Structures are given as structure tokens and as C-alpha cells.
Amino acid sequence: MERQQLPNSTLILIFGILSIIGCCCYGILGIIFGIIALVMAKRATEIYNAQPELYTGYQNVKTGKILAIIGLILSAISLISTIVMFIMYGGVDGIYEMQNEILREIEQNQ
Q: 3-state DSSP helix/strand/coil percent for the chain, to nearest 5?
């Protein structure tokens, strides 16, 4: 019997990579892609474990799962730091004011 590609194995790897890249978007996209990749990886692992001799591409699933976990951690840190910044500086206006103060100080020191 010919071995076939494990369903969604490449997509899981892509979503794992996107979860790491998505941590740069305030963490929201990274969390979304990470959760999707983990859910898909769980299903693919169940399929593979039922009949491992029928499928190839399990390495992509394992790698995608690891990348998704890393992406989730980085995204959670990014999201938490963004929330803390908003709380500490009073929202977007407070952050802009802080940036303007820093720029004024840099200009004065030059």
C-alpha cells in the first residue's frame, strides 16, 4: 500500500511559522494562528497514531506544533506587554505623549 501525505501537515507548519511572525502584530494574530495550528496538529497526530504506516509528513506536524507553541508564548508576552503599556500610560494618547517627550529630550541633548 502506498503511503500518503498526512492531511494538513504543510498547513500546520505554515500556521506555526505565521504564529511566530504574528507576535509582532500586538500578539493577536500570533495567538490566532498558534491555536489553529495546535488544534490541527492534535487531529493530525491522532490520525497518524492510528495508522502510522499509511502516512508521511509527520515531521512537519511536529515542527509546526513546536513553532505554534513558541509563537503562542511570544504572542502572549507581546499582548501582555501591550496591555500593560496601555494601562501604565493611559491609552494611545498617553503613549504618544510619552514618545513626544522622549523626542523632545533627544532634540535638546543634540
A: 85, 5, 10
